[in-house]
Amino acid sequence: MCVAILIGLGYRHLSMNGRSVARVKYLLRHIDFEDAQTLARRSLEAQMATEVRHQVAAFMERRGMGGLIRGGL
């Protein structure tokens, strides 16, 4: 669920398949914009993609939404 990173980067219009809409809406309702900005900033500073994946996983787990990404890691 890298949607949080996109929101943190300032994206306001997202395109996705219909099956993802409900999960993304749920995520957007349960994250704070400032937290998403922090996640985006840290992701840009990461040296490797695995660091970004771990940051996103930790971000989601702290908010009780780890189940939304477990299949995609």
Automatic annotation (TrEMBL):
InterPro entries hit by this protein:
PEP-utilizing_PTS_enzyme (IPR050499), Pyrv_kinase-like_dom_sf (IPR040442)
Note whether Plastid occurs among the keywords. no
| Gene Ontology terms, MF aspect | transferase activity
Q: Which UniProt keyword terms apply here?
A: Pyruvate, Transferase
UniProt superkingdom: Bacteria
Record protein name field = Phosphoenolpyruvate-protein phosphotransferase
Organism name: Salmonella enterica subsp. enterica serovar Bovismorbificans
